[in-house]
Structure formats: structure tokens, C-alpha cells
Amino acid sequence: xxxxxxxxxxxxxxxxxxxxxxxxxxxxxxxxxxxxxxxxxxxxxxxxxxxxxxxxxxxxxxxxxxxxxxxxxxxxxxxxxxxxxxxxxxxxxxxxxxxxxxxxxxxxxxxxxxxxxxxxxxxxxxxxxxxxxxxxxxxxxxxxxxxxxxxxxxxxxxxxxxxxxxxxxxxxxxxxxxxxxxxxxxxxxxxxxxxxxxxxxxxxxxxxxxxxxxxxxxxxxxxxxxxxxxxxxxxxxxxxxxxxxxxxxxxxxxxxxxxxxxxxxx
Length: 266
Hints:
It comes from Permianibacter aggregans. Pfam families: DUF3025 (PF11227). The protein has helices at about 25-30, 40-45, 60-70, 80-90, 90-105, 115-125, 135-140, 145-150, 165-170, 200-215, 260; strands at about 55, 70-75, 125-130, 160-165, 180-190, 225-230. Helix content is about 40%, strand content about 10%. It has 2 domains: about 15-90, no CATH class; about 115-250, no CATH class. The longest helix has 18 residues, at about 200-215. It is an alpha/beta fold. β1, α3 and β2 form a beta-alpha-beta unit. It is built from 11 helices and 6 strands. The termini are far apart. The radius of gyration is 18 Å and the shape is globular. The strands form 2 sheets. It has a 4-stranded mixed beta sheet. Strands 1-2 form a two-stranded parallel sheet. α3 packs across α5 (about 90-105) and α4 (about 80-90) crosses α5 (about 90-105).
């Protein structure tokens, strides 16, 4: 019954890259040694604390179906949809806010629009840039990679953390590659929060992030998200211990692509 778009279960995958820390406790709690049969697969993904559940559903309007039934369309044994379910488990309020944004935008007309583009981009490839040090947020926004990754390297994991949100990006991180880039939304936090256990940090980020998404619902665009080369994050790729790694200008671009710049005008 395995989905043709999926692949074999990879044991201990969440231990193979730090990006999976954000969902590691959920994965460990499931304690799967392989993809389970369909019934326990959906039942176990649908945690008791969630107002939604996961189900195999096809040929439906995704956001409307969630709003009407509380069921998130989820393909069986599919890595992409599995990560989506995990993110629903750890950031439920923020995922709900994204769904609400899509519904609100749809109610305003037939055109998709930039706010839905931004919501989809963050849902698929987003990362939360949780930061207590404004100089690092500035470096991210200015694409100042030498400052962000080298001169301020020691501030990572103390005054700034990257928490993966995009389920598509998490899927890609099973096999990382040069060029892998997420789209960051800055969430200012106090430094003490970054030192808390992941469930505490995650819950507070979810509270703040859902509020930010709701407040931006009227005029959010992809330009509000900042490119973040994931393999540049200290500890996220062995080769970035060598300063020469950051000399790759095809990966560490200093300017946005033209289509990213133009979204503000669309």
C-alpha cells in the first residue's frame, strides 16, 4: 500500500541533521521502525491535542476541506505529507493561521494573489529565524552572509536559532545538497527563550508566529520572507567549518533574484 511518490522508511533519520530537532520528540514518540499500516498511520499522526486529524482524501479543495471537516488531506506513507503532519503537530496555531489566510484570500476574489503565494512559500520552504540579536536579523535581511555566518558565528544557537517550518524543505533535508535554501520569517525573542527545551521554545514560537501570520494576512508578500542558505548555518553542514565554503556566490547570493524583488509590486 506504499505510495509511489514515497520511499522506504529511514530509521533514525531525525538524528542525521540538526534541522530535524524541531520535530524530533514527535518522531521519537511515534517510535516507528517502518511505515505502519494505514489505520495506525493516520490514527497515530492525529495527536489527541490537535483540533484536526489526518486522512487519505483526494480531489478536494485543500483549505476548504480542512475548515469544513477538520481533516487534513494526507497521502499514506509519503514523506512530504508526513512532514506536513509533523509540523501541524508542533505548530498547530501557525498552521491554522496559514489555512485561515488562504480562505480569507480566496473569499476576496478569484485571483491567487501575493499573500497566498507568500503563505504557500512559507508553508513549503519556510524557516523561523528566532532571534534576540538585531544585528543578526539585519544581516539576514541584507543578505550579509559574512556577518551572519562568520563574524557573528558564535551567536548561533545562543542568540539565534533556525526552526524549520516548511514541510517541503524538511523533506529535502533528508538528502541535503548545496543550494538548499529556505525562506525565513524573523520572530524576535528574548535570549533566555532560546535556551529552553524545544517543546517550550516551540510553543512560544507557535504563539508568536500565528499572531504574526494573522496580522500580515492582508498584505503579506513573498518579499517579506528572506532567503536563508540552510547549509551555511553553523553545525548544519560539515564543510562550513571552512571559511572557503562561503565563497560560493551561486549559493550565498548577495542579491535577491529579480522575481523575488518584484513581488512587492505585484
